[in-house]
Write a structure and sequence with these properties.
This protein is of the alpha+beta class. The protein contains 10 helices and 15 strands. The strands form 4 sheets. Strands 7-15-11-8-10-9 form a 6-stranded mixed sheet, with helices on one face. Strands 1, 4, 12, 13 and 14 form a 5-stranded mixed sheet that branches. A two-stranded antiparallel ribbon has the order 2-3. Helix 4 crosses helix 5.
Length: about 350
Amino acid sequence: MPVVATLADELNTYLPDVGKELEDTIRHPSDFIDWMMASGTKHAFNGDLREEIFDTKKAVLTQGVYEGNERLGFRNPQRTQQISWRGHRTVSTLALFNRDIAIAKGGGKNKILDLYQDLPNKGILDPVLNLERYILTGQILDADVVTAADYAGWMTLYGPATGGKISGLANGMLQMVAPASQTTNTLNLNKSLAIGWYNQYGNIASMASEGKRVISKVISECIYNDPSRTDPEVLWVDRDSFVEYGDLRKNKLIIVDSTRKDDQASNEDYHPIDGCKTKMRYTRQMNPALDFIGTPGQYGMGYLLHGSDIEVSELEGLKVGKWEPLVGTDMTVMTMPWHMRMALLRHRRNGVITGFLNN
């Protein structure tokens, strides 16, 4: 018997024409995720569990020699502290009504391609945008299509978050309290018990009078706690904090794309921070007044990060699958799997700054 072509087959016929462009579109709607994937350290995905010894004592001991017969000692590094975490997998589905596909089919190839062009309006960008929002806030964009629990197997930087479902990632990585007061268990290591397992933090009581000083102080602490003495790469802040800092600096904005005709800062533009190489960039996925209620972050917040301290490993990169009939419905569906493992390492050379909107 001849095989009857389905509407899914009609969509799959043109998938080779648009597949690469479509995958580029769904993987790159977020400057933050692009930065993280490009700057992050890659590690072979050998099994879902990742473990690493966290050294907290230096291995060098220096002694004075006065007579020449002194017995030399040695320093035993503490290797009892181990961090560990696991990967997580999500599968996103995109469904189209068969009626719409049939109408497009009647209009020929161009109408089918129009369907593909319209997929961003149907939420095909949401998997990456939700990941960005979850990493930065512990929350997601649209509870109608996904819940925070679906992303709770991945890392969030937001310290007060406690909803993680994967061992080692139950809590947010970076706390908004002084290092001596940090008690969270991250990557299966308790900050209150471990040696050297903490992040930097500073709060700006008044942006006008002490904003630059607090930012510089936290950056200097990150540099001091980095054996290589390198500046954090980026200070990622919310949009309002970015604008506030621009006002403080008299809007000395670095425009990456000089061909743009509008006068609004794009996500790629940045503010240089005086006295260091750290760039301030912003993300629209943080809304302090809504996302960080009851914490210092509700008055503006930013993450100071070394990109290389974020370890990112993809077992299966986000990609588009073939269209299939959705059994029992009058719809056709595409699946988009994503299997990844990530975590922020070396916490003490990364940090959080709050209070950008305090005047």
